[in-house]
Design brief:
The protein has 172 residues and is an alpha/beta fold. It has three helices and seven strands, in the order H-H-E-E-E-E-E-E-H-E. It has a seven-stranded mixed β-sheet.
Length: 172
């Protein structure tokens, strides 16, 4: 809630600063010697000049705390309640669409674990109400254990549920 209030206040301050006129011409002279000086050239324009490519103000969307949750670091469990690891990365395609999640699977306290990639559509988020709730994966522990390890800058093998996975196009 504080983050939302801070965001709204930040947007209001930026909007106020952008719309505020300059008050430099209204200030009185600082000393008597400046009063006797010849008058300065009037400003060429009293209308503030904005660059043609100035960015418009950003849009603001408020999402309720019960409407959306972060997924990085969330525990993942199978439908049978088996611990499958935790989400450590989200894989997107060139258009920005989420395709898969990288899960830190196996091991004990981070030792002996490896990253595997599962299709985003194989994850179920319905039971998430707070940080302690886990995400459900529609795969068994044996299926995930057989998946190849994910390594950056190599082709990604994505483990999908029910054969619904569509292949990623090769990046050229």
């Amino acid at each position: 809630m504080r983050a939302i209030v801070a965001l709204i206040m930040g947007v209001a301050i930026v909007a106020g600063l952008a719309a505020a006129p300059s008050h430099a011409a209204e200030d009185p002279p600082a000393s008597q010697s400046e009063a006797n000086a010849p008058p300065a050239q009037p400003p060429a324009s009293t209308v503030p000049v904005t660059p043609k490519d100035a960015a418009p103000p950003p849009s603001v969307t408020i999402i309720g705390a019960s409407e959306a949750h972060g997924v990085l670091g969330r525990d993942v469990r199978s439908a049978a309640g088996e611990d499958m690891g935790r989400i450590v990365d989200v894989i997107v395609d060139r258009t920005g669409h989420v395709r898969a999640a990288a899960i830190d699977f196996g091991g004990f306290l981070g030792v002996g674990s490896r990253k595997i990639v599962v299709d985003w559509n194989a994850l179920r988020f319905g039971k998430i109400a707070n940080k302690k709730d886990s995400i459900t994966l529609e795969l068994t522990k044996a299926q995930v254990a057989a998946a190849p390890e994910y390594k950056e800058d190599t082709p990604i093998v994505v483990l999908g549920a029910s054969g619904s996975l569509q292949p990623l196009q090769a990046i050229q």
